Amino acid sequence: MKRALITLLGAGALVGGVAVVADPKPDDAVEYRQGIMMALGWNVGPMGAMVKGDIPFDAGQFAFHAGRVAVLAPMALEGFPKSSAAAESHALPALWENYADFEERMKKLEESSAKLAEVARSGDEGAMKSQFGDTVKVCKGCHDEYQEEH
Ligand code: HEC
Questions:
Q1: What percent of the chain has pLDDT over 90?
Q2: What domains can you pick out in the chain, each with its CATH number?
């Protein structure tokens, strides 16, 4: 296991794709984070539709998307390096001025979505819907503060 991981990291280094990009170009960081955000939205969409009753509730599908969100959430923060503050994006200046709060909110998203994935594995519909509400509140709370309306 450990050996496989080391091999994997080595392969990543060869193609320049290790987990933490030391000094990404600001525009690359913007594209990356918008991609992660889009992927979050992509997976939150069907869960939201199930919670609202727009499509039938399917515990398996819900758990699938919840698992995706839990994997994506910890990948978001690295797309917001301070070096990208001046790059054109929908991030508000307040984000860079309150970076510790922003990081805190990302941490909350990580925790809430991990819990969502865990609850989803239990198949308890009520608990899934309730935890989903908690997770999207974290999305919205951060957007209200730090994402330009568009
Ligand atoms: C800690 C803050 C924070 C959290 C939490 C957060 N977002 Fe975002 N999100 C942002 C910011 C800032 C932007 C604007 C990024 C940019 O334009 O560079 C954004 C942009 C987006 C976009 C638009 C992407 C684009 O291409 O312009 C979507 C969709 C999105 N977020 C979905 C989500 C979903 C779904 C969640 C929760 C599962 C979430 N976000 C959680 C801060 C956050």
A1: 83
A2: 25-81+89-146 (1.20.120.10)
